[in-house]
């Protein structure tokens, strides 16, 4: 019984801790966290094309994102108003023909999202920390809400 009471007290103490780190200046935009500095991701709309019957190609203008991070496992902060952080998906993009693109196939070798973890940092506001679960190779990446063409792009170098 004592063990349960101590565990409950520790859990309440952890929940009561306030987040004291940097806060995104804009809602519904992902920010890369570099220590106490926040770097706004490149926000754009992906263009959808259908090159073949069972394929969908999404493209983003520009060969590379101007937003760069040296971190192989980047951390993002999000102040959510309309954007649901649980619906975010991370994909690696390929640079071709002066643009970034990803091809989705309805059958077979389909592009798969890279795993993320989402943690709510503040009970008072919708502040979330989004971490990449695995190390990323150098290249172009995009976070996008499932079912949306809005993209938050960055580059790992």
Number of helices: 1
| Radius of gyration using CA atoms only | 18 Å
Strand content: 35-45%
Helix content: under 10%
Care to count the β-strands? 13
Assembly context of the chains: single chain
Q: Note poorly predicted spans.
A: none
Which class do the helix and strand fractions yield?
mainly beta
Give helix and strand order, one letter per element, not per position.
Answer: HEEEEEEEEEEEEE
Specify the biggest β-sheet: 8 strands, mixed
The first-to-last residue Cα distance is: 52 Å
Calculate the mean pLDDT score and round it.
Answer: 90
Shape: globular
Q: How does this structure look, described?
A:
It is built from 1 helix and 13 strands; from the N terminus they run H-E-E-E-E-E-E-E-E-E-E-E-E-E. It is mainly beta and 157 residues long. The termini are far apart. Strands 3, 4, 5, 6, 8, 9, 12 and 13 form an 8-stranded mixed beta sheet that branches. Strands 2-1-7-11-10 form a 5-stranded antiparallel beta sheet, with no helix packed on it. It is globular and about 50 Å long. A hairpin with a 2-residue loop joins strand 8 and strand 9.
Write the layout of secondary structure elements.
Blueprint: H1 2-16, E1 31-34, E2 37-40, E3 42-45, E4 47-49, E5 55-61, E6 68-69, E7 75-79, E8 88-96, E9 99-105, E10 116-120, E11 127-132, E12 139-145, E13 150-156
Parallel strand pairs: 6-13
Antiparallel strand pairs: 1-2, 1-7, 3-13, 4-5, 5-9, 7-11, 8-9, 8-12, 10-11, 12-13
